[in-house]
Amino acid sequence: MSRVTIREVAARAGVSIGTVSAVINGKSTVKDATRSRVKAAIDSLEYRPVEAARRRLQTPREKSIGFIIKELHNPYYADIIVGAQQTAEVHGFRVICMSSEQRFEYEKEAIQTLASKDVEGIIINPALGDDPDVSHLEDLRERNIPFVLLEGMRGDFPASIVDVDNEAAAHGLTRYLVEIGHRRIAHFAGPRVSMHAGERLDGIRRALAESGLVLRAEDLVHAGAALEDGYRAGIERFAGRGPERPTAVTCFNDLIAVGLLRALHELGLRVPEDVSVTGFDDINVARYLTVPLTTMRMPRNEMGRQSAELLIRRMRQPITVPPERITLETDLVVRASTRRLA
Amino acid sequence: MSRVTIREVAARAGVSIGTVSAVINGKSTVKDATRSRVKAAIDSLEYRPVEAARRRLQTPREKSIGFIIKELHNPYYADIIVGAQQTAEVHGFRVICMSSEQRFEYEKEAIQTLASKDVEGIIINPALGDDPDVSHLEDLRERNIPFVLLEGMRGDFPASIVDVDNEAAAHGLTRYLVEIGHRRIAHFAGPRVSMHAGERLDGIRRALAESGLVLRAEDLVHAGAALEDGYRAGIERFAGRGPERPTAVTCFNDLIAVGLLRALHELGLRVPEDVSVTGFDDINVARYLTVPLTTMRMPRNEMGRQSAELLIRRMRQPITVPPERITLETDLVVRASTRRLA
DNA sequence: GTGAAAGCGCTAACAA
DNA sequence: TTGTTAGCGCTTTCAC
User: Fold this and answer.
1) What are phi and psi of B189, to 5 degrees?
2) Which residue among B81, B109, B145 places its CB closest to the CB of A72?
3) Cβ A57–B52 below 8 Å, yes or no?
4) Tens digits of per-residue pLDDT, B24-73?
5) Do A97 and B96 lie within an 8 Å CB cutoff?
6) On chain D, which bases lie within 7 A of the protein's CB atoms?
């Protein structure tokens, strides 16, 4: 049963399709009686015009950009989207979002869906699997749909990107911990397939190495990216350990840190007295915790704004313009969850 | 400068549009040499097919449903969307989201945008202004685009809706506080224009009245819906007050409660020793706080699933089927932020 | 292998 | 006031 078309409505109402069209578009040239009959036909057939056809296939349509995030649950993305919306609005674009929920297949589908909706461009926070499959991005390229990434891809896939220097940021954060006296620092790492996670780990290792320290195998905990992951990993890592434990833990992100904070609390370990904890991102809740979180702030709003700006700029440039990279600054935000060791 | 069309590509490549189409669609009937020429033309012109036209205007397209939330920042919505996605996926639908950020104008635009993308239906968490303007919903109705609400509208606008009984839930929560001995209970209310906020306030008042208590004017604080609102309102309400203060505060939602928790902490007031605090929603973070939050759980995942289910069902029914209301259950989750008074 | 032409659902002249 | 018709950008026969 295919969809009801304007022709059927016209037939039912005993008028021409032109008249039906006029009614749909609220033209005042239609006689009231006719209009009623047409409306009745529309109602009884439950006719719904195909917007793609109405938009005339011949006039500029509403401009929109797509946005693909990795997880609905992390407020990190919410801030970026809001930033993108603010900039998009100025240029007359709407932002429509989809989430891959960390699944590569979903990401591919989301790209297809967005493309099929004729968005003018897409901002993507890519969820990469282990294999460097970038076919969906190559596909976008081939279709001449501009896109901007918010996180690098394996194998130096050449694409425009707005990001921070995660390695340097993590390095700075770790240096700070070393400088205030920490020697044994653990890391609650992010998802293995996340570029940011890898970059941050690299930065930590470098900072440690510079001070003649190492990240012990037992102190590298593969936590994940969600609240629950931080909690679970925290309980596992710290339960039943004596004084033989790290004096500080760097977490992949704030969510992990919040989970860890809770785990430590339940285990009777105090923060920062017994353990210092750092996060990453500076999501809003970080400063409202009972123990406000020391964290590396990601310029989320700015990331959103800049990525939208860049995307829109590129929509207006020849696609041959080489990919552009915009690197934003992070800020170390010191709060109460870390302390100087005696 | 209008967009490049298939005709221009054909001209540039010296072939017919049929051939260009065949190349775009990867048909194997095209000679290699021709294909190369066409691809070169596509590249040099940066041709991007209009998907709306490709989708043939003549074949079923990807099925999608739109989702409009009020705030990107509240994890409450994230959980609902995830639920909706889970159900939508089963039925072969994709979910695309937009946020009104509490602005009525944005909501109207979002609806237009989604409709113009030919979504099959829309789930809306309506952001109502003071005036009961439902023209955008009437518009949807007129266009025979099915929709489901996640919150009531002023004036009993007849529409299918998935919601909880907020009045009863707030009533139950307040009763619990009264039963454990609280006599002076304050309320940090949500946005004035939120139906949920109003319903919850009603439930609180009823519970209070049943026990011969009242909500004093000074104890009704118009906080808002965000973290910052709870914090700010908390500082304002509790700074410099002596023992003359409420023994318990019910917050419109968990975000407000988290902000309040922080404010109380800064003011040196302990929770629950000095003040009991309750939230609403049971967002994930609620149980990971240093003082886990007593709250009324909203069945967010279920709300998402049921709303998607209902929407999809209605897409397949005559639109004349009367609106349906699905009321889900809430659960009181007692944690450490409330205590029994001696 | 390729081109010509019909047609997708609709809007917008233009006639009648 | 209404009907007819020519497109919109594309895909898909079906000849050549």
Assistant:
1) -85, 160
2) B81
3) yes
4) 999 999 999 999 999 999 999 999 999 888 876 655 567 999 999 999 99
5) yes
6) 1-5, 7-13
| Residue B222 and residue B278 in one domain | yes
B234's CB contacts (< 8 A; 6+ apart) are B188, B259, B260, B261, B262, B263, B264, B267
Instruction: Give the whole-angstrom CA distance, residue B82 versus residue A102.
Output: 12
User: Which strands, in side-by-side order, build the sheet including A220-222?
Assistant: A220-222, A185-189, A248-251, A276-281, A294-297, A331-333
> Is A58 a residue whose pLDDT tops 60?
no
Distance B10 CA to C3 C1' (A): 11
Question: Which segment of A46-55, A277-286, B111-120, B329-338 scores lowest on mean pLDDT?
Answer: A46-55
Q: Are B227 and B255 in contact (CB under 8 A)?
A: yes
Give dist(CA B342, CA B340) in Å, integer.
6
According to the model, what pLDDT value does residue B129 have? 58
Q: How many CB pairs below 8 Å do chains A and B form together? A: 151
Torsional class of B106: left (φ above 0), alpha (ψ -120 to 50), beta (otherwise): alpha
What are A90's two structure tokens?
């100025």
SS3 content of chain B, % helix, strand, coil (to 5): 45, 15, 40
Whether residues A287 and A221 share a domain: the answer is: yes
B42 backbone dihedrals φ, ψ, rounded to 5°:
-60, -45
Residues in a beta bridge with B65? B95, B121
Q: How high is the pLDDT of residue B58? A: 52
CATH number (domain holding residue B201): 3.40.50.2300
- Residue A338 inside a domain? The answer is no
Q: What is the pLDDT of residue B1?
A: 54
Those residues of chain B that have pLDDT short of 70 are 1-2, 56-61, 129-131
DSSP states along A2-64 = PPP-HHHHHHHHTS-HHHHHHHHTT-TTS-HHHHHHHHHHHHHHT----HHHHTTTTS----E
Same domain, A186 and A274: yes
pLDDT for res B157? 83
A220 and A198 within one domain: yes
pLDDT number for residue B56:
62
Looking at the structure, do residues B70 and B218 belong to the same domain, yes or no? no
State whether A290 and A318 are in the same domain.
no
**Residue at B111 is within a domain:** yes
Residue B26 confidence (pLDDT):
92
Chain B residues in contact with A112 by the CB 8 A cut-off are: 62
pLDDT band of A60, cuts 50, 70, 90? low
Does any strand D atom come closer than 7 Å to the Cβ of A25?
no
Q: Specify the DSSP class assigned to residue A303.
A: H
The DSSP output letter for B302 is: H
Determine the pLDDT at residue A341: 95
Is B162:B196 a contact under the CB 8 Å cutoff?
no
Assess whether pLDDT exceeds 70 at residue A1.
no
Tell me if A335 is assigned to some domain. Answer: no
CA dihedral (A168, A174, A175, A176) positive or negative: positive
Assign B27 to helix, strand or coil. coil
Number of folded domains that form chain A: 3
- For residue B14, is it within any domain? yes
Q: Which residues pair with B295 in a beta bridge?
A: B279, B333
- If asked whether residues A178 and A217 sit together in one domain, one would say yes
Question: Among all chains, which residue has been given the structure tokens 């039912």?
Answer: A12
Q: Quick one: B216 and B193 in the same domain?
A: yes
- Record the tokens describing residue B146, joined without a space: 């099915």
What's the CA–C1' distance between A2 and D12, in Å? 19
- Cβ separation B113–A62 shorter than 8 A: yes
Domain assignment of residue B225, given as a range: 166-298
